Amino acid sequence: MSTRTLIRGGLVVTAADEIHADVLIEDGRIAALAAHGSDAAAGWTADRTIDATDRYVIPGGVDAHTHMELPFGGTFASDTFETGTRAAAWGGTTTIVDFAVQSVGRSLREGLDAWYAKADGQCAIDYGFHMIMSDVNESTLKEMDRLVQEGVSSFKLFMAYPGVFYSDDGQILRAMQRAADDGGLIMMHAENGIAIDVLVEQALARGETDPRYHGEVRKVLLEAEATHRAIQLARVAGAPLYVVHVSAEEAVAELAAARDKGLPVFGETCPQYLFLSTDNLAEPDFEGAKYVCSTPLRPKEHQAALWRGLRTNDLQVVSTDHCPFCFVGQKELGRGDFSKIPNGLPGVENRMDLLHQAVVDGHIGRRRWIEIACATPARMFGLYPQKGTIAPGADADVVIYDPHTVQTLSAETHHMNVDYSAYEGRTVTGQVETVLSRGELVIDQRKFTGRAGHGAFTPRSTCQYLN
Questions:
Q1: Taking residues 41-48, what's their average pLDDT?
Q2: How far apart are CA 76 and CA 67, in angstroms?
Q3: What is residue 73's predicted lDDT score, i.e. its pLDDT?
Q4: Which of 388, 326, 375, 321 has the alpha carbon at shortest distance from 348?
Q5: 412-434 per-position pLDDT tens digit
Q6: Helix, strand or coil for residue 155?
């Protein structure tokens, strides 16, 4: 059965254009666009017509950094693939790229298969995987080639978390060399974990146990130093580099300097670094634990540099690093010892709205909003133009967005499986109204109409900025 959907009367916003156009969807893909009121559009018929008058018609968001069901710190991220992808859809995101985890001593394949099993039949929206490499050796280096061919074309390494995910410079260099050969993209958590562990131990010995010390020991300079080192290792390897969750002005400066030399170096930041700060980490009565993530929240002064980086394209992507832990029973594991607070914040549902608020506030333009949230992550991770745009042939991942509705973000109303909101009480202008994933209604006029199992694993090609 062929099904046709027509979206009429909206302002279509992509990274490249803003046009008043009608959008015709057929069999799960964008079939055509035509100017609203034109003869071409007037002749279209459809099984279903959506009125988008006074609305934006935008591509579904691509969140290239999520952690559903991640084991961490003796517990698990509280969103499953089912709850997490449903919440993503509510927030206008139609594709996530999650992180499969290799355990030390085990193969990449075993880790990837475990994540396939977690996600299979559970997702409301489409998904892909990156591979966390915890154990770089001859055999895992060979596996990288096979994963790239399978559509898992990016590999995350950690300069942080000694004894858990940490790789030393030699391991990092070898993985980068392999990526340079097979077209993979290395994603780097850039913090000097060895030095941070010393500062953690010293802080706890002084009796500094509150959540705010999490931010104080994970120093800006140790993010900047690791970012610099990662860039130099990538230069030696002749490999591209994508630095995740950049939070500090000094780290942005390292990326800008590398890009000024024409190096294939890319940076991502997250809404928490743009909208939250160390003031949140310092909230009394252990409330600051809600905001413990790594890299940590920084003093407010750093936000201007992050916004500037997004405007100048020294930072290219805003992802969430969605990794939720409930305050009760999970974040509380670190009462009396900040180093035991599970690291991570909920945010997959809030990203598109917060970035629209940034448009309202004048930090970025409308097309840049779509660029950093949809088009660039799709290109960066080999999904474009199937994802990230509204153009003939693209998947019909489309959001009808009301730019005028004012909403208050709250744990009372969000759909993430977590007992607090990092943005509790914040009002934002703009709200997702209707969401289609490959032409199927997932959110219809603020009602969830999707289902677990609609979302499909989406193999990715290599980074499209390197051709």
A1: 94
A2: 10
A3: 82
A4: 321
A5: 999 999 999 999 999 999 999 99
A6: strand
Q: DSSP letters along 292-332, please?
A: --SSPP--TTHHHHHHHHHHHTSS-EE---B----TTTTGG
CA dist., res. 100 & res. 116, Å (int)? 8
E strands of 112-190, at which residues? 126-132, 154-158, 185-189
State the sign of the Cα–Cα–Cα–Cα dihedral 116, 118, 124, 130.
negative
Alpha carbon distance 13, 370 (integer Å): 7
Radius of gyration of the chain (CA): 21
Predicted confidence (pLDDT) per residue in 103-126, tens digit: 999 999 999 999 999 999 999 999
Amino acid code (one letter) for 144: M
Q: Nearest to residue 355, comparing CAs of 398, 317, 312?
A: 317
Distance CA 62, CA 467 (A): 21
Which of 103, 150, 98, 146 is CA-nearest to residue 122? 98
Could you identify the residue written with the tokens 């050969």? 181
Q: How would residue 467 be classed by pLDDT, with cut points 50, 70 and 90? A: low
Determine phi and psi for 406, rounding to 5 degrees.
-100, 130
Asked if residue 361 lies in contact with residue 430, where contact means CB atoms within 8 angstroms, the answer is: no
Distance between start and end Cα atoms, the chain: 38
What is the average pLDDT value for the chain, to the nearest integer? Answer: 97
Tell me the residue length of the chain.
Answer: 467
- What are the phi and psi torsion angles at 345 (to 5°)? -125, 150
Structure tokens at 403: 């730019």
Q: CA dist 396 to 155, 180, 308, 344, 399, Å?
A: 28, 33, 32, 31, 9
Q: What percent of the chain has pLDDT over 90?
A: 98
Average pLDDT over residues 383-403: 98
Closest CA to 185 of 175, 193, 195: 175
Rounded Cα gap, residues 414 and 397, in angstroms: 22
What is the rounded distance in angstroms from the CA atom of residue 380 to the CA atom of residue 391? 18
pLDDT at 306 over 80: yes
Those residues whose C-beta lies under 8 Å from the C-beta of residue 271, and which sit 6 or more positions away, are 318, 320, 347, 350, 351, 354, 355
Write out the two tokens for 355.
Answer: 């970035």
The two tokens of residue 184 are 């993979």
- Note whether 108 and 144 are within 8 A (CB): yes
User: Is 239 strand, coil or helix?
Assistant: coil
pLDDT tier at 357, thresholds 50, 70, 90: very high
Q: Is the dihedral of CA 295, 297, 302, 307 positive or negative?
A: positive
**How many CB atoms neighbour CB 22 within 10 A?**
25
Q: Are 230 and 159 in contact (CB under 8 A)?
A: yes
